[in-house]
Amino acid sequence: MSPPPAGRAGTASAAASRWARGVEGTVAVRIVVDSTADIPRDRASTLGIEIAPLAVLFGDQAYLDGIDLDGPTFYQKLAASTVLPTTSAPSPGIFEEAYQRAIAAGATAILSIHLASALSGTLQAARTAAQVVSQRSGIPIELVDSGTVSAGFGLPAEMVAAEALQGKGLPELKARAESLCRRARIYAVLDTLTYLQRGGRIGRAQAMVGTLLNVKPIIAVRDGQVVPVENVRTRGKAYERIGQLTAALGPLEALALVESDQTAAQQLTAVVQRVWDGPIEDFALGPVVGTHAGPAAAGVAAILREG
Q: Where are the domains of the chain?
């Protein structure tokens, strides 16, 4: 069994409480992420994390992720709609607004952490905006390509934001974020590969299509690509397999759950707790990630211990 995470100031919720009490004083570096980090808005707010939303489109109707459309409403709409949604990266203007909010909140430097560039043009839009805002304001903005998605970089962003509360500087925080993202591993059980396939994000997991009769696919995200792990006959056995895969990773620094279904989350949590006795943050898959993962998905985002 892996020991509790080292080098992390408790859970993100504990760090958020410290932020709310103001015991850490003024934080010079603030964190910006895009909405595919799936960080809950309340945790982001109390940790001082700004979120730039991507968009979900049902036909001609566009919704900003987490603003115009939350997770539960999205999955209800997904079930009822005859139109499969698509997603769109933010414009540079959306990022300019996020950076300006961070500056207005007192940031003297910004660390911007984002969805894998191999999956989206989101990072490029952030880079364009960062150049404009930095030139105009004189505030340094550093960007990190996480190489992953959802809690794979949402959890590192929370951890780095908690460390920013302690007054750490931009170079140290950027190096820490890059290290955490590099050590992040995601395993997930999907109800179907249909949504990944239709969204064009299926990657090497395309090889699993056509073999999925009454099985549950386990996928991983590696180097910005969705890759197949294996097919398992039942959901329960798939969760057990994720527990085994997590245990095989070796010592962990942190672990989070990703899910688009609370029942699935509870079942997977029970399995994961057998191999990990540290805190487990929950990341509900929002509309953009849910567009590609689909309903009834659940998985883990684990961060390997360094060294």
A: 12-182, 184-304
